[in-house]
Design a protein that fits this description.
Strand content: 15-25%
Order of helices and strands: HEEEHEHEEEHEHEHHEHEHHEH
Length: about 325
């Protein structure tokens, strides 16, 4: 045999020379869940190893991550029920702890990249990403709230806005609002292909952001999040987001949608992000805790596979663990 592919697998050194894909902490984004108060480090039972953090604890976490070469963070707020309303007005309130926490983190670590969450569901008394009226999600009315939210986040120091709401036209609405107010350098990482997935459970536990039961409140998010059966539709969303000024296109979830990640990578020139969501991470952790899988091998392999599929950016609850192992 003239060709023996096994020759390039013969030793660790040779395998390293032949390796096609290299994943580093620079490709990863660590999610952080923020709460009011101080000294708060509250475990999330459905997502082991992840915590709700007050800003002082979040600063410690960012410092530890930065020391490992992990520089990018996406922040999510857990809002008290008494500050929620049907239009999510606390999202742009001057007293919003999420905004002040971001400003404090950015001041302490100006070299860090902070990514926001732009959607109504953390702030909505209905638990939806848009304004609810007579059992329907109002698209265009929601855009005005998203613009106010996005501007408040840009002023707080976020480097990149992350519209996760899946309202039509929200990227353009944010881009126009940002440019008009002098924030032309603030980027947009659009949740382009965000599916109505069963794998968001632990995240909704962390933020208490699931849709509220009610006669005139939709029971799920299927009228605005994408159908898991559809792949070509992701190209429509991607084309629109590109035309509207998105700087990154995201696929969410990640592990169960690697075909969509590859499709987006093949069709668009901007970086492709993948959100390795809470349910996907929790499944792997549960299997490892039961002794069915080896975390030290399964976790890096999972992230590497997402990068191989075409994800330039991976948002994952394993980011810090991966960075620790790289060191």
């Amino acid at each position: 045999m003239l060709r023996r592919p096994r020759r390039n697998r013969r030793s660790a050194a040779i395998r390293g020379l032949a390796q096609e894909i290299h994943l580093t902490p620079q490709h990863l984004v660590q999610p952080l869940f923020l709460v009011e108060g101080s000294g708060v480090r509250e475990a999330i039972p459905s997502l082991p190893g992840t915590f709700r953090l007050s800003v002082d604890e979040a600063l410690k976490e960012v410092k530890a991550c930065m020391a490992l070469g992990l520089q990018s963070f996406i922040l999510f707020p857990k809002i008290p029920d008494n500050k929620k309303d049907k239009r999510g007005t606390f999202s742009y309130d001057d007293d919003n702890f999420y905004l002040s926490a971001a400003a404090e983190i950015k001041a302490a670590f100006p070299e860090a990249c902070l990514i926001s969450d732009v959607a109504l569901d953390p702030y909505s008394s209905d638990g939806h990403d848009g304004i609810v009226h007579d059992g329907k999600i109002l698209n265009d009315e929601t855009l005005h709230v998203l613009q106010k939210m996005g501007l408040a986040q840009a002023k707080a120091g976020f480097d990149i806005l992350g519209p996760s709401d899946m309202m039509d036209g929200r990227v353009e609405a944010l881009r126009v609002a940002l440019d008009e107010e002098g924030f032309s350098d603030t980027g947009i990482m659009s949740y382009t292909a965000k599916y109505a997935s069963a794998f968001y459970g632990p995240f909704r536990d962390a933020l208490d952001s699931a849709p509220v039961e009610g006669e005139d409140i939709p029971a799920d998010k299927k009228t605005y999040q994408m159908n898991p059966a559809n792949r070509r539709e992701a190209l429509i969303e991607g084309e629109l987001d590109m035309l509207e000024g998105a700087d990154f296109l995201m696929v969410k979830p990640a592990l169960h949608y690697m075909d969509v990640i590859l499709t987006m990578k093949q069709h668009f020139e901007v970086p492709i992000a993948a959100y390795h969501v809470s349910g996907e991470c929790a499944m792997l952790m549960a299997a490892c805790q039961n002794g069915w899988l080896d975390y030290e091998q399964a976790m890096p392999e999972t992230l590497l596979s997402l990068h191989r599929a075409g994800a330039d950016v991976i948002i994952t609850y394993f980011a810090k663990d991966f960075a620790e192992r790289c060191g």
